[in-house]
């Protein structure tokens, strides 16, 4: 039997013609925003950055992060022009697993650094997971309550588009812009879980590993490679009844570090305990960083490392652009999908398919 509600005569709901609603944004206001956001020229960007204009700096960083080819070209021109004004900073990489206290510590570290006159701090981040989750919490302003309201601070979450290499390049270019805008302290935050440390290590002068005291076997699960990169290991949350455990963890880390070969810098990595939340021991960490800076500037390693990093980034940039050019080529894209199918149905081998695709690409050049 037909349900009563399916009868045309049955109308429980009738829809009245609605009243057209007003636009949610004042149209006059909208045009004002647009007028304000008119596209700046390269020289206006450069001038703004060199004057330390944070709004213009932010807009230039947005161009760096953009995936639009026009923006890329513009961003590269800006980076190129401000490059001679960059370099004058201490770049500090900060890593630690989620929950280690990175944001609490950065808030505390930053407030400490701002006590020095002329300190300007940029907090940047590299988050390899942000591509998947479409957004990074690293470098998020809301996590750094005190810092985020300071005038001499520029906080920028991790760029989220592209491969780790692409994300890292964007952060590195952002460092250049920030330095040109007068930021003389740069923090680059990352999560202590893998490859992203190598990327951060390749762009900073000092690498700080934040650790927590555990339940005994302190070194468990920490990748040797990450420990080897660290110029200092700092054990956070050394407060309340956690102090003894933190000291114990510190001694374990000191013992472990002794077994590592001496780093190229000639600097013996140190281990300290502190509390990011209460601020205990923060001054000691920055005294240590200062000693490191004097040491590596004295023995020439500071400049040597920066020069090598520049060399590394040239190769990284070449690789990125080759890949991008290759994978964005429409002919290659369609050929790749054909070859994928052929491989899956075992009509061809991966090597033969790769050779055919590459041959097509290079013949095109
Ligand atoms: P992140 O994930 O590494 O950025 O870690 P957070 O800074 O968000 O800190 C994780 C948790 O540890 C938060 O609940 C913090 O309040 C807490 N925490 C951070 N630093 C300290 C510290 O020095 N002492 C104590 N007791 N807790 C801390």
Folded structure, characterized:
The longest helix has 27 residues, at 301-327. The model is unreliable at 31-35 (pLDDT under 50). Strands 3-2-4-1-5-6-7 form a 7-stranded parallel sheet, sandwiched between helices. It has 14 helices and 7 strands. It is of the alpha/beta class. The protein has 3 domains: 40-85, Single alpha-helices involved in coiled-coils or other helix-helix interfaces (Up-down Bundle), CATH 1.20.5.170; 86-298, Rossmann fold (3-Layer(aba) Sandwich); 314-364, no CATH class. The protein is globular. Helix 2 (42-50) crosses helix 4, helix 3 crosses helix 4 and helix 3 runs antiparallel to helix 7 (164-180). It binds guanosine-5'-diphosphate. Guanosine-5'-diphosphate (GDP) is lined by residues 96, 98-104, 236-237, 239, 275-277. Guanosine-5'-diphosphate (GDP) binds at residues 96, 98-104, 236-237, 239, 275-277.
The kinds of small molecule bound in this structure are:
guanosine-5'-diphosphate
Name the CATH homologous superfamily of the largest domain: P-loop containing nucleotide triphosphate hydrolases
Distance from first to last alpha carbon = 71 Å
The proportion of residues in beta strands is 5-15%
Strand order of the largest sheet: 3-2-4-1-5-6-7
Rg measurement, Å: 26 Å
Number of domains: 3
Helix percentage: 40-55%
Which outline best applies? globular
């Amino acid at each position: 039997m037909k349900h009563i509600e399916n009868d045309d005569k049955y109308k429980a709901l009738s829809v009245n013609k609605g009243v057209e609603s007003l636009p949610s944004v004042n149209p006059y206001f909208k045009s004002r925003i647009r007028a304000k956001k008119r596209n700046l020229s390269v020289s206006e960007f450069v001038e703004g950055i060199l004057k330390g204009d944070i709004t213009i700096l932010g807009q230039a960083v947005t161009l760096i992060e953009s995936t639009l080819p026009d923006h890329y070209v513009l961003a590269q021109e800006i980076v190129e022009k401000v490059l001679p004004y960059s370099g004058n900073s201490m770049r500090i990489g900060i890593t630690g697993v989620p929950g280690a206290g990175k944001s609490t510590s950065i808030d505390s570290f930053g407030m400490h650094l701002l006590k020095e006159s002329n300190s300007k701090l940029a907090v940047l981040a590299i988050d390899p997971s942000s591509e998947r989750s479409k957004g990074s919490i690293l470098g998020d302003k809301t996590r750094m309550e005190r810092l985020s309201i300071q005038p001499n601070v520029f906080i920028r979450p991790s760029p989220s588009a592209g491969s780790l290499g692409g994300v890292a390049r964007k952060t590195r270019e952002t460092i250049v812009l920030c330095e040109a805008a007068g930021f003389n302290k740069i923090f680059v935050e990352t999560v202590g879980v893998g490859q992203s440390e190598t990327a951060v290590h390749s762009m900073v002068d000092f690498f700080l590993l934040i650790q927590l005291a555990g339940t005994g076997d302190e070194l468990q699960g920490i990748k040797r490679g990450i420990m080897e990169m660290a110029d200092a290991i700092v054990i956070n949350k050394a407060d309340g009844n956690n102090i003894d455990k933190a000291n114990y963890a510190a001694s374990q880390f000191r013992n472990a570090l002794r077994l590592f070969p001496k780093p190229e810098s000639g600097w013996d990595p140190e281990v300290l305990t502190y509390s990011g939340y209460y601020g205990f021991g923060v001054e000691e960490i920055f005294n240590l960083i200062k000693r490191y800076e004097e040491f590596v500037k004295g023995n020439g390693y500071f400049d040597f490392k920066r020069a090598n990093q520049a060399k590394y980034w040239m190769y990284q940039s070449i690789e990125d652009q080759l890949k991008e050019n290759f994978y964005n080529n429409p002919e290659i894209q369609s050929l790749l999908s054909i070859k994928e199918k052929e491989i899956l149905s075992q009509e061809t081998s991966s090597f033969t398919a790769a050779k055919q695709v590459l041959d097509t690409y290079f013949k095109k050049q």
